[in-house]
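Suppose a colleague, Dr. K., hands you the sequence of a protein chain of 419 amino acids and asks what its three-dimensional shape might be. Before reaching for any lab equipment, you can write down a predicted structure in token form. Begin with the sequence itself:
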Amino acid sequence: MRLAIIRALAFTLLLGGGSAATDSEVARGVKQVEQGDLQGGLETLDAAVRRLSASPTAADDFALAHLHMGIAYAGLDQEKAARASFREALQLRRDLTLDPQRFPRRALRIFEEAQRDLPPESAAGRVARSVVQVLAADGKPLASAAVVDAAGHSLTILSMLPTDGVRVVLPDGRQTRARVVGRDTLLNVALLALDAAPPPLVLGDSDRLQADERVTVAMAGRTAEPVVEGRVSARDRVGTYLVTDLRLELTASGNPLLDGSGNVVGLAMVQETPAEESIAEKTLPEPRRRTALTTFAIPASALRSALPQLVETGRVRRGWLGLALKDITEEEGRRLMLGQAGALVTAVEPGSPAAVAGFLPGDQLAALSGRSGFQDATEAARTIASLAPGTVVSLLVNRPKPKRLHWLNATIGERPEPR
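The predicted structure, expressed as tokens, is then:
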């Protein structure tokens, strides 16, 4: 009877369009189960599962192992163990399906019960299905990349890319090649083109994020609930990066950042920054000074703006005037009689389009002709960057000495690449 049941288990297993074991021990255990050696297959698969638990890139093999353990337990009339194994497989791969025409009723029933028992998937779990892992030359995870369109284009952190070719691990555990087809040194992002890719995620609206808002990171790899929680703590001086209190390793760079509603609002970028030091530690030579890991995030609004150019040309051209801008404090607005809206010009680069147009330090940049006034320096800088180089614009300037409003005409230049 046992052999007849196992022979009936020549099933169609759909793992994201079809997949087979890449791990030799899992493949051997699967074969044992399918040939009727239930106990031997269980022992082989159990050993494989214990070993694979340390590997974050083995989701497909892990799911296959647990699925076949469930099949074996069902054949041995151990329903509780079968349900637990099916649940483990489904937590890793919720898209698992079995062919009802080729499965025995008992295994199908237990499998369907395990499906119904699964708790609702978190937003981070869903998003993680659109994230791949970038591998180092030795095969270890180096960073992650988020798939952002149906063509398989993915965004990752430029500074984390290997120098000797790129390979990635898909959410189902398969490896595939990737080509670097775009670079944006200002944002520190790279655009990859994958030979095969999971469904894309949707970039949300990062502009709505507030300081101290709770965020989560959807972590790629073999985890049932791939979530790390933290808060947005501040923005840097020009609003390019979000700053968070998330505690992540360098290899977590490139994973999506989600807001409280589950919207993708950025990509995590983990960087080494100087750690707080004692007076004695500050006297140490540079190689011995301590560093800490700080998690920034590249906002989705900036990624969404750069993506079309990265896909089309492989680079991003941004408008530039050569102005250093800052928000106007309440005290500055009162002293200069400027109010707090707009941006304060703190420096003008010599020879820049702004210098040619006549901008001076201390000017209040208030508005762009044809648009509503700037709320702050972040909005002003973002608006200028969005303009095509060569565009002629009129900008409303409030100059406190002498106190007057006037329009300055400027030709937008192209922002130089960071050195």
